[in-house]
């Protein structure tokens, strides 16, 4: 479905972003991976994707806190492939703390990586997408873009911001064949969630098992973590021609969490 299309996925060295990259590679799209990680592991992933599927994969190490590096990544992708079709703004971090103890540098990093990086990336790809009159922008928000939880003030603020950004961009791009949508997963068992189990246990003074059962999955009526493959499938649909009229919307994939 995406043969010849060029896709940038931020934060695609791990978790949800990596699965989205694998999904697009399997559809013969050309990719730019991004994110932190061991260079040998990243190179191994690139070699594996290129040898398994008919696609070309590059990696750019742009730090999502740095607008200049984001612009440089977009330029490199255009210079390499001559087009940019799909941007998935997926990079994200979390920090869990009562607001009165929340480190200011953590707050600023979360706003930069989870919200501002999407603004900077969209700003750079928009001229290319407008010129070709086709584009898909998908912002990885969260159930925390729709509802809040205690001790996640920075993340909740950033993800609510992502939904506002999504709507504004959708309106600006609507007449250019470009759609912009947000995906709102519930809890997906990735390194990001594994990392917050311990900190949530500390913040609430309970065991890690209790965090999984009584805090995380308590929100999800299915009592199951969402799978990375399920999130990637939603991204695949939103990137398709079948979703040409779907724009400015957010899509929950949260096991019923936000139905409460
Ligand atoms: P993850 O920790 O597995 O992956 C995060 C990715 O972002 C990694 O590739 C990491 O290297 C990259 N990254 C972090 N800081 C970066 C920076 N400064 N510059 C460039 N890359 C950076 O996390 P995940 O769970 O796969 O999360 C991916 C997205 O999905 C995030 O936006 C997250 O908020 C969102 N999300 C996750 C869940 C969940 O339960 N896991 C739920 C809802 C939304």
From TrEMBL:
Q: What Gene3D superfamilies does the annotation carry? A: NAD(P)-binding Rossmann-like Domain
Q: Which GO terms describe its molecular function?
A: 3-hydroxybutyrate dehydrogenase activity
Q: Per its UniProt entry, which superkingdom is the organism in?
A: Bacteria
UniProt keyword Cytoplasm, yes or no:
no
Q: What is one Pfam family matched by this protein?
A: adh_short_C2
According to its UniProt record, this protein's enzyme class is: oxidoreductase
State the coiled-coil residue ranges: none
Q: What is its EC number?
A: 1.1.1.30
Keywords, ordered alphabetically: Oxidoreductase
The biological processes this protein is annotated with in GO are: monocarboxylic acid metabolic process
State if Cell wall biogenesis/degradation is listed as a keyword: no
Task: Fetch the NCBIfam families from UniProt.
Answer: PHB_DH, PRK12429.1
Q: Which family does it belong to?
A: Belongs to the short-chain dehydrogenases/reductases (SDR) family.
| Name of the protein | D-beta-hydroxybutyrate dehydrogenase
Q: Which gene encodes it?
A: bdhA
